[in-house]
From TrEMBL:
Residues 44-97 form a coiled coil. It holds the Pfam family PilN. The keyword Flavoprotein does not apply. This is PilN domain-containing protein. Keywords: Coiled coil, Membrane, Transmembrane, Transmembrane helix. It comes from the Bacteria. The chain crosses the membrane at residues 21-39.
């Protein structure tokens, strides 16, 4: 004979509900994984499209030529900046080593007598050559004596003088002092 269990229905329904919850959870998990992978696939496709677009842009000849042109211009700018730096250094060196400057020319100009006119002045690193005319020899001698008073001149002498058409033409040769001697004199003056 078979036993009748009136509570069987209650116990089986609970099992059924618990199993359903497990199945629903697993179903939800699978659906979530599917959507997650689907979304990732969409992102991957979008990124692939962007990469392919960027690749075509990079491989575009027009853009390559522009990039090469910009690189060349950048190299030229770097060269120009380097040249500017070198020129600034050279300019500083020239200013430092400059023996013949505006002050020296003004000093020469202040010492020219009234009757003397300069035709040309030639400068180089160690000497100055002055050519001029005068109404008399005395004014030329006065110019030589006046120029001998300039401290940066080592030697001043009249190299050539001759009479021509109512005036005397002359050439003055001036030797400049060495920079080392000039520096030593400045140091002596300071002491």
């Amino acid at each position: 004979m078979k036993d009748l269990n009136f509570f069987n229905h209650y116990t089986e329904s609970k099992k059924f509900k618990i199993e359903n919850i497990y199945y629903l959870f697993i179903l939800f998990l699978l659906i979530s994984i599917f959507f997650y992978s689907f979304i990732n696939q969409i992102k991957i496709n979008n990124l692939s499209k962007k990469v392919s677009n960027l690749k075509t842009q990079v491989e575009n000849e027009e853009i390559k030529t522009k990039v090469n042109k910009l690189r060349k211009e950048k190299d030229e700018i770097n060269k120009v900046e380097n040249n500017i730096k070198q020129l600034k250094l050279l300019d500083e060196f020239i200013k430092k080593e400059d023996k013949i400057n505006e002050e020296l020319i003004k000093d020469i100009n202040l010492r020219i007598p009234e009757n003397v006119f300069l035709i040309s002045i030639e400068f180089n690193l160690s000497s100055i050559e002055i050519k001029g005319i005068s109404g008399d020899k005395l004014s030329i001698a006065q110019l030589e004596r006046n120029l001998n008073e300039i401290k940066s001149f080592k030697n001043v002498f009249i190299s050539n003088i001759y009479f021509e058409e109512n005036h005397y033409s002359f050439s003055l040769s001036i030797s400049l002092k060495d920079e080392d001697v000039k520096d030593d004199e400045e140091k002596d003056e300071i002491k």
